[in-house]
């Protein structure tokens, strides 16, 4: 596989994770961490299921990867995530020293990699991270659009039933 | 207790947490979360012990509080932390909707509440958080200064023994 094929392959796995989230009624965001060509972590957003504010896909994947490598430094790894990370997850990427992330769709409301801030490229922090964006962005964003469309339709039906 | 006495009392508990971290060889940072006058979470930095990059005091305390309230929304709570939060922890404060934080010392290298960014007061995010800084800052900062002084001395002795 060349670089682009590899990125599509692993983003495909992250999308599978996002689909698992949707099936649980969770906002569909998925993440994968690889070292070389080996997947060392896969996770999806679980905020409603766990009732725990920090259980975003990236946070869960980073914790899995730390356990897999028995190290808080995730050297030589690459994180794939379907949506541009929020401030918490961008910060966790810096904390775990991930050298490279690949993401799908931009998040204009809370994205802190390109949209609202560029936290991963701020040289005042003790780590910077290479960023590849816009990998399968339509598929990644489409999952979110569909999820919120379905949610609105369900809520509308519920209101009708209750009326 | 008036507001300032209360802040000193709870920051004192956060300092006790930071001291527990130091005893384990961890960078001494501690955090407390209260609801009303009840402590619902207390935690200290455990990054080296757990080998998990996200186990900062604030992240651990937020997760404990979510469990205590069985909710990812930490409404009517207040977080006390000895050091200005990093981007990850500032982001976690936004994610968990904590309405008010109180911190001790500023962190000029990575602080994202006042020093490098003001993430908790950015109206583009869907939550903002009231901030009180400089509560027992000398005690909080002094713990860190002493910890790193001791660490340098131990490393120097180690090099001497090995030479």
UniProtKB/TrEMBL annotation, chains A, B:
The keyword Transmembrane does not apply. Binds 1 zinc ion per subunit. The active site is at 58 (proton donor). Coiled coil: none annotated. Belongs to the cytidine and deoxycytidylate deaminase family. ADAT2 subfamily. NCBIfam families: PRK10860.1. This is tRNA-specific adenosine deaminase. It comes from Planococcus citreus.
């Amino acid at each position: 596989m060349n670089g682009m094929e590899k990125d599509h392959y692993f983003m495909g796995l992250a999308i599978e994770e996002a689909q698992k989230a949707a099936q649980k009624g969770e906002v569909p965001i998925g993440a994968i961490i690889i070292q070389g060509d080996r997947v060392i972590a896969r996770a999806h957003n679980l905020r409603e299921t766990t009732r725990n504010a920090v259980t975003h896909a990236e946070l869960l994947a980073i914790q899995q990867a730390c356990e897999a490598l028995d190290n808080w430094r995730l050297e030589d790894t690459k994180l794939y995530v379907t949506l541009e990370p929020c401030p918490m997850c961008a910060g966790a990427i810096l904390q775990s020293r991930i050298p490279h992330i690949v993401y799908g769709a931009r998040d204009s409301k809370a994205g802190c990699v390109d949209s609202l801030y560029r936290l991963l490229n701020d040289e005042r922090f003790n780590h910077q991270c290479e960023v590849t964006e816009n990998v399968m962005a339509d598929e990644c964003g489409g999952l979110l659009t569909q999820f919120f469309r379905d949610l609105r339709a369900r809520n509308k039906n519920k209101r009708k039933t209750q009326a």
